[in-house]
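Example protein
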Amino acid sequence: MKEPIIISLGGSLIVPKTGIDFGFLKKFKKAIDEMTSQGYRFILICGGGMTARNYQSSAKKVIKLTRDDLDWLGIHATRLNAHLVRTIFRDTAHPVIVKNPTVKLNFKEKVLIGCGWKPGCSTDYDAVLLAKLYNAKKVINLTNIDYLYNKNPNIYKDAERILEIDWKGFRKIVGDKWDPGANVPFDPIASREAQKLGLEVILANGKKIKNLENIVKGGKYIGSRVFG
C-alpha cells in the first residue's frame, strides 16, 4: 500500500466567515475520491476556521481566558470540523478520527481524518507529527491564499510573494511562539519540528482543486515551497 499523503486542511476552507462552505467540500471530496480510485491514500487534518474564532471571541467577551482555554476551544472546533469531513468521506474513511498524532493506526481505508490534539500547537503540528509517524516526506498545507508572503498582503501593499524558502528563512517570518487563534501560514511549533525532520511543506490555495491534484501527482502547481 502507498504511503499516505498528508494534507493540512485549513479551517478557513471548511468554515470561512460566511459559514460552512459545502460547495468547496463537495469539490474537494470529488477530487480526493478520484485520486483514491487511482491508488492514492490520504491523511486529512482539519483546522478550526471561523468556528474556532467565533467561540474564542465570544468567550473573551464574557471572561478573561487563559491560553489553554483558547486552545481547547480551538481544538474542539477542529474536532467538530473533522467529524463533518469524516461524515462526508464515510464510504472511504477510517471510522476513528485521529486525536493523538503520536499513536499510529494501521488503517487500511483510503482516507484517515485527524483533528487538534492538545494545547500549545495547531493542527499544522499534528500534520507534521503524522508525517513523521507514517514516514511521509511532504505535507501539503491548504489555505485560502495562493502563495506565502514575507508579510500580510492584506495589510501591506509592498508584501513580496515567496515561491521557495528554506526553514531558517521561513521561521524568521512566522516566529517561534504559538498564539492560539493566530493567522499564520504555518504554525511556528510545527515549523520547528518540520525543520528538524527535513520535511518539505507546500503552501497552496485549497480552493484550486486542479492545482491540488497537480501537487499530489508531482506536476506544476501554484504555491510556495518550504524545505531544507
Summary: The domain at 5-227 is CATH 3.40.1160.10 (Carbamate kinase). The chain has one domain: 5-227. The mean pLDDT is 93.
